[in-house]
TrEMBL record:
<protein>
    <recommendedName>
        <fullName>tRNA dimethylallyltransferase</fullName>
        <ecNumber>2.5.1.75</ecNumber>
    </recommendedName>
</protein>
<keyword id="KW-0067">ATP-binding</keyword>
<keyword id="KW-0547">Nucleotide-binding</keyword>
<keyword id="KW-0496">Mitochondrion</keyword>
<keyword id="KW-0808">Transferase</keyword>
<keyword id="KW-0863">Zinc-finger</keyword>
<keyword id="KW-0479">Metal-binding</keyword>
<dbReference type="InterPro" id="IPR030666">
    <property type="entry name" value="IPP_transferase_euk"/>
</dbReference>
<keyword id="KW-0809">Transit peptide</keyword>
<dbReference type="InterPro" id="IPR036236">
    <property type="entry name" value="Znf_C2H2_sf"/>
</dbReference>
<dbReference type="InterPro" id="IPR039657">
    <property type="entry name" value="Dimethylallyltransferase"/>
</dbReference>
<dbReference type="Pfam" id="PF01715">
    <property type="entry name" value="IPPT"/>
</dbReference>
<keyword id="KW-0862">Zinc</keyword>
<dbReference type="InterPro" id="IPR018022">
    <property type="entry name" value="IPT"/>
</dbReference>
<dbReference type="GO" id="GO:0006400">
    <property type="term" value="P:tRNA modification"/>
</dbReference>
<dbReference type="GO" id="GO:0005524">
    <property type="term" value="F:ATP binding"/>
</dbReference>
<comment type="function">
    <text>Catalyzes the transfer of a dimethylallyl group onto the adenine at position 37 of both cytosolic and mitochondrial tRNAs, leading to the formation of N6-(dimethylallyl)adenosine (i6A37). Mediates modification of a limited subset of tRNAs: tRNA(Ser)(AGA), tRNA(Ser)(CGA), tRNA(Ser)(UGA), as well as partial modification of the selenocysteine tRNA(Ser)(UCA). TRIT1 is therefore required for selenoprotein expression.</text>
</comment>
Length: 461
């Protein structure tokens, strides 16, 4: 049915507003404006902003901005804590949303951590009944998970294949964190992780990507921009961070929290706030010997700046890809509509972003169809993102149809194809002598088979 004639069934305003978008698109700015006008409160869904410190590099809202609209979930976790998880976030955020609803406030979720937002919108985390948090890196179990992660990826994958072959077929052997989590779930409940997910998706309102929506009629706003314009904006933002004291912030944080960890050989850029984009990019600069020449330090500083800009732009693309994959290309009752707002031209912020956003919310509050139609991207060819392939030529495991196709076209794969061809031809000449031409043809047939040698496991949970 066309969007203009679709009947809406809403007895109240949207249960919550979620503002999506890549870093640098102005999500916080829009959230504050909506909050001021519609009696809302903001919940930050950013996995790095929950930690104290690194305010500049994690792009936290300023004290002045926080004074305009009440914010939650910012700077309340000690930076040395590495066991804070999406479950901890979810439980606290859900309590905040319930409290806002009881006080007649509009919850506004804004942030760039995708799995944090998913945990609020959908019932996607495993609730085993043993202890809700115990399956998702809760405070009582991170040591066990870390011990598992310390094992080699091949060993972990082998263990998972023995107790949960379906989940093992979906995970790359190098993805130690997810494999360790699946093993942990099985150890604590006696039930395979894949079975938990199957039960969850089988709930009323559930779907292929998880359980049902948690709240009725959430309003999803997606801020998007032309990537060339956004890239320039992100480069400018890094320059603004430098002017605001980014290097001094990094140096101070390194001295207080990271220097001793490096000396103890316990530094870890895979957990906690140390994962922040920007911190690890300046590792060489921060750890350069005191006796280093000024030119060397300046070169390391410039290298860190360039790495930060590259990582930030890469992250922006990853965020947009998630929005497209999770919302725009997934039909179904458990996927809410997404209203797109173009933020390419910041000089048109009022007319292109703020006014349409407020109009959408007003129409939804009245149960009317918004003048802005939800965004939908034409569905392309369906690809299995979890199919399991092994390339014997390259001795690699590839997860996903798209990745497998790309690998077969890669330079590295062609290198091994040529190497295999030369080996086959040499073997044919050695063993066949005068009959080499016929045997060579057989070798070519063998080569064709070899280039596609793989294990293809399609898993539907």
């Amino acid at each position: 049915m066309a969007a203009s004639t679709r009947v809406l069934h809403r007895a109240m305003a949207p249960s919550l507003v979620v503002i999506l978008g890549a870093t640098g698109t102005g999500k916080s700015k829009l959230a504050i404006e909506i909050g001021k006008r519609l009696h809302g409160e903001i919940i930050s869904a950013d996995s790095m902003q929950v930690y104290e410190g690194l305010d500049i590099i994690t792009n936290k809202v300023s004290a002045e901005e926080r004074a305009q609209c009440r914010h939650h979930m910012i700077s309340f976790v000690d930076p040395l804590v590495s066991s804070y998880t999406v479950v901890d976030f979810r439980n606290k955020a859900l309590s905040l949303i319930e409290d806002m609803h009881s006080r007649g406030k509009l919850p506004i979720i804004v942030g760039g951590t995708n799995y944090y937002i998913e945990s609020l919108l959908w019932r996607v985390l495993v609730d085993t009944g043993v202890k809700e948090d115990s399956t998702d890196e809760a405070d009582e179990t991170p040591d066990r998970k870390k011990k598992l992660e310390n094992l080699g990826g091949a060993e972990l994958h082998k263990r998972l294949a023995q107790v949960d072959p379906s989940m093992a077929a979906m995970l790359h052997p190098n993805d130690k964190r997810k494999i360790a989590r699946s093993l942990q779930i099985h150890e604590e409940t006696g039930i395979p992780h894949s079975r938990w997910l199957e039960l969850q998706r089988g709930q009323e309102g559930g779907g292929g990507l998880g359980g049902p929506l948690r709240y009725r009629d959430p309003c999803i706003l997606w801020l998007h921009a032309d990537m060339e314009a956004l890239d320039r904006r992100l480069d400018d933002r890094v320059d603004e961070m430098l002017t605001a004291g980014l290097i001094e912030e990094l140096r101070d944080f390194h001295t207080r929290y990271n220097k001793q960890r490096i000396l103890d050989d316990s530094q870890d850029y895979q957990h906690g706030i140390f994962q922040s984009i920007g911190f690890k990019e300046f590792h060489e600069f921060l750890t350069a010997p005191e006796c280093s020449a000024p030119q060397e330090k300046e070169a390391l500083r410039e290298r860190g700046i360039e790495a930060l800009k590259v990582a930030t732009k890469r992250y922006a693309r990853k965020q947009n890809k998630w929005v497209r994959n999770r919302f725009l290309q997934r039909p179904g009752d458990n996927v809410p509509a997404v209203y797109g707002l173009n933020v390419t031209d910041l000089s048109r912020w009022e007319e292109a972003v703020l006014t349409p956003a407020l109009q959408i919310l007003e129409n939804l509050r009245k149960g009317e169809e918004p003048p802005v139609a939800p965004v939908r991207i034409q569905k392309g060819e369906q690809r299995n993102k979890r199919s399991f392939h092994t390339c014997d030529l390259c001795d690699k495991v590839i997860i996903g149809d798209l990745e497998w196709t790309a690998h077969l076209k890669s330079r590295k794969h062609y290198y091994h194809v040529r190497k295999k061809r030369k080996s086959e031809e040499a073997s044919s000449q050695d063993c066949c002598g005068a009959a080499a031409p016929d045997c060579s043809g057989a070798a070519q047939d063998s080569l064709k088979d070899c280039t596609l040698t793989h294990t293809d496991v399609t898993v539907t949970l």
